[in-house]
Amino acid sequence: MPVYQREAEASTRTGRLTPRSHRLSFCILVFIEADESPRNLNYSQVTVLLSTVDWNPHEICSIMPLARAFFRLHGYLQPISKTQAPLVSRLIRTQNEVKYWQYTAAPQSTSCHWQLQEECLELSYGGLVMHFDYVWLRDHCRSASCYNSKTNQRNLDTSHVELNICPTNTRVDDENLFLTWPDGHVTKYNLSWLAQNSYEGQKQSAMQPRIIWNSDIYANAKVSSANWDKFMTCDDELKKFLRNFLLYGIAFVEGVPPTVEATETVTQRVSLVRETMYGKMWNFTSDFSRGDTAYTKLALDRHTDTSYFQEPCGIQVFHCLKHEGTGGRTLLVDGFYSADQVLQKTPDNFELLARVPIKHEYIENVSDHRNHMIGIGPVLNVYPWNNEVYMIRYNNYDRAVINTIPHDVVKRWYVAHRELTTELRKPENELWVKLKPGKVLFIDNWRVMHGRESFTGLRQLCGCYLTRDDVLNIARSLGLQA
């Protein structure tokens, strides 16, 4: 009997988790919580999930057969028996102990096969069949004359590369591909680098590891908040905060002094403040001092902010400095989770929301404020090579007249938009948080929608927008994939 099957049966029989079966069981639990059928797991889904689990590289090749063993033994979504309960309970308790670890899986096989075709080189390596245009191979040469490794910038002028270029000689050793060009120049590529940077490789990879969530998934993850003192002085605390932010699209810092100045200080730890027509740091109550529903006591439905910008603000920060009254809880919804539900159930609706641009508009004529902003883009913004959503524009308050959609597509767009709205408004997808003085909330405004319930009394809120590029820059400088 294979070792993975022995471990699976041992875990089922004894209720004790072997190292490999523990980590695999965590993977299965996450997929079940996300309503993903384990029977439909594919390599790319497992690879994305592996980025959140501390796997030994040698275990990766055995994950699929080990998974199949668990599915045969446990079944799928069957009632938990008394003997299985301790096992599942331990899995839930230990979720918070799992480390986030980015790992690019080693190829399952190091054998390499290549073939020169008329316009491209076909390369089979690590179980992946890739195609590289000859112009691409010449353009991306990493030799000293073509690429400056100190500045990570190109030296080669692409316009000087012959568009019909072909190598005159090609050879492969255990780890590298060598190409000789008509002028005698030799290009050397590491095979793993080619696999990582091929279109086929990128199609199976996520640009940014994430855990899409509903309220139960987020609650069970037990994501911890950062501590103000450690956050301001310790890079490890900052890295932990950014890791949570990248994975879930929200993160908290607690213990912050309830002042505008302290709020600005904590935000500057991760990014530059993005100044808009609302100012740099905003501090407001329900006095309707600006022409926006946010400056009232009314409830606000889920939405993303600044959808009327050509580039919506990337990060939003909220800090409740004072509330003398009732209500006012903050609503958070993972838009990526809802978009994924649409993709799984009705791919045509997902495609329509990702393809058709619409307008959002903000017109303000209050006191001395005169603003007219228009932003244009689809509701779902996706990377075309892997269908990964990277931004959502969803704001029913600011959606402008729909005049960018042909009449024979309008009804289909409304149907698709209605399906997304239905997913966003499901109670199980809502996370309600009571903001209190000292607790600062960071929101990925390209992903997580926010709203609030109506409130009474004086409620003073401050916050700002942050430049998204700077947040991602700091995350990458700390070794995170962003």
Keywords:
single chain, alpha+beta, NE0471 N-terminal domain-like, 3 domains, 7-stranded mixed beta sheet, 4-stranded antiparallel beta sheet, 16 helices, 24% strand, carnitine biosynthesis, GBBH-like_N_sf, oxidoreductase
Task: Give an overview of the whole structure.
The protein has helices spanning 3-14, 19-33, 43-50, 63-74, 85-93, 134-139, 191-197, 199-203, 215-221, 228-233, 235-248, 260-267, 335-345, 347-355, 407-424, 468-477; strands at 112-116, 120-125, 128-133, 147-148, 153-154, 169-172, 176-180, 186-190, 226-227, 250-254, 273-274, 282-284, 300-303, 315-324, 330-334, 357-366, 369-378, 380-383, 388-392, 431-433, 439-444, 448-452, 458-466. 33% of the residues lie in helices and 24% in strands. It has 16 helices and 23 strands. The protein has three domains: 3-97, no CATH class; 112-203, NE0471 N-terminal domain-like; 207-482, Clavaminate synthase-like (Double-stranded beta-helix). α2 crosses α4 (63-74) and α14 (347-355) crosses α15. The longest helix is centred in the last third of the chain and has 18 residues, at 407-424. The chain starts with a helix and ends in a 5-residue tail after the last helix. Residues 10-109 have low confidence and may be disordered. With 482 residues, it is an alpha+beta fold. The protein is globular, with a radius of gyration of 26 Å. Strands 9, 10, 11, 12, 14, 21 and 23 form a seven-stranded mixed β-sheet that branches. A hairpin with a 4-residue loop joins β4 and β5 (153-154).
